Amino acid sequence: MTVNYGSRRLVVGAHYGLRDWLSQRVTAALMAIFTVIVLAQVIFSRGPIGYDKWAGIFAAQWMKVLTFTVAAALLWHVWVGMRDVLMDYVKPVWLRLALQVFAIVWLTACAGWAVQVLWRL
Q1: Which CATH architecture has domain 13-119?
Q2: Which of 47-56, 90-99, 106-115 has the lowest mean pLDDT?
Q3: Rounded to the nearest 5°, which phi and psi values hold at 59?
Q4: Over 60: is that where the pLDDT of 1 sits?
Q5: With contact defined as beta carbons under 8 Å apart, do 79 and 104 qualify?
Q6: What local confidence, expressed as pLDDT, does residue 7 receive?
Q7: Residue 41 and residue 39: Cα distance in Å, rounded?
Q8: Measured by CB atoms within 10 angstroms of the end CB, which terminus of the chain is less buried, N or C?
Q9: Are 14 and 85 spatial neighbours (Cβ–Cβ below 8 Å)?
Q10: pTM given for the model
């Protein structure tokens, strides 16, 4: 009796494991650090918190770049999570592909909107 392992293997998303796990942790840590930075600016600011105060926090160029970097990290975090959920739970390939394309288009539109909000394009 001959056993031939691997000749009929079905390759799915399992090879993403460590890279996905690590990217989720790195992006989450980046978002947590950003949250602490924004909270520190809000807590240590004087006077009432209104539009002018929020606009002042995000007026500096370094803060805009940091905010967009965190927005990009958030979008990547969402993409990895959505892709993994779709690969695990949506079995029809055509539906999974359609949902992945929708997610990509939606996340790209969100990135464009973030640029527009941050730099008033």
Answers
A1: Up-down Bundle (1.20)
A2: 47-56
A3: -80, -35
A4: no
A5: yes
A6: 59
A7: 5
A8: N
A9: no
A10: 0.81
